[in-house]
Amino acid sequence: VQVVESGGGLVQPGGSLRLSCAASGFTFRRYAMSWYRQAPGKEREVVARIGSVGDDTYTTDSVKGRFTISRDNAKNTVFLQMNSPKPEDTAVYYCHAPIGSGFWGQGTQVTVSS
């Protein structure tokens, strides 16, 4: 099982960024997937979750209306579209697959700054 995040970087407040998570080693279309983030000195927190077929989504209150989670089961990929990011969204963003005890990617750094 492997999940690999990409797409992070430096973005200005009010800009946009799309994160991708490429999954392999399991039947991707059967599992819900999640994005988490961890800011310096803070605990890792869930940002968004999407059901196996993409019709059931959850986003945490602090990003609701700005971030959107989606998936492409044909490409075994889950996305996080980040619109109008704020400096407080700066964190390492992780993809999570609920396989066994759970698999994490290596994370991708997102820095929101002008």
Describe the largest sheet: 7 strands, mixed
Radius of gyration of CA atoms, rounded to a whole number: 13 Å
**With helices defined by DSSP (H or I, 4 residues minimum), what is the helix count?**
0
Strand content: over 45%
Structural class of the secondary structure composition? mainly beta
Tell me, briefly, the overall form. Answer: globular
Low-confidence stretches: none
Mean pLDDT over the residues: 96
**How far from one another are the termini?**
37 Å
In N-to-C order, the SSE pattern is: EEEEEEEEEEE
Describe this structure in words.
The chain is mostly beta strands and 114 residues long. Helices cover 0% and strands 52% of the residues. The chain has no helices and 11 strands. The strands form 2 sheets. Strands 2, 4, 5, 6, 9, 10 and 11 form a 7-stranded mixed β-sheet that branches. It has a 4-stranded antiparallel β-sheet with strand order 1-3-8-7, with no helix packed on it. It is globular, with a radius of gyration of 13 Å. The model has no long low-confidence stretch (mean pLDDT 96).
Write the layout of secondary structure elements.
Blueprint: E1 2-6, E2 9-11, E3 16-24, E4 33-38, E5 45-50, E6 57-59, E7 67-72, E8 77-83, E9 91-97, E10 103-104, E11 108-112
Parallel strand pairs: 2-11
Antiparallel strand pairs: 1-3, 3-8, 4-5, 4-9, 5-6, 7-8, 9-10, 9-11
Quick rundown:
Helices cover 0% and strands 52% of the residues. The chain has strands at residues 2-6, 9-11, 16-24, 33-38, 45-50, 57-59, 67-72, 77-83, 91-97, 103-104, 108-112.
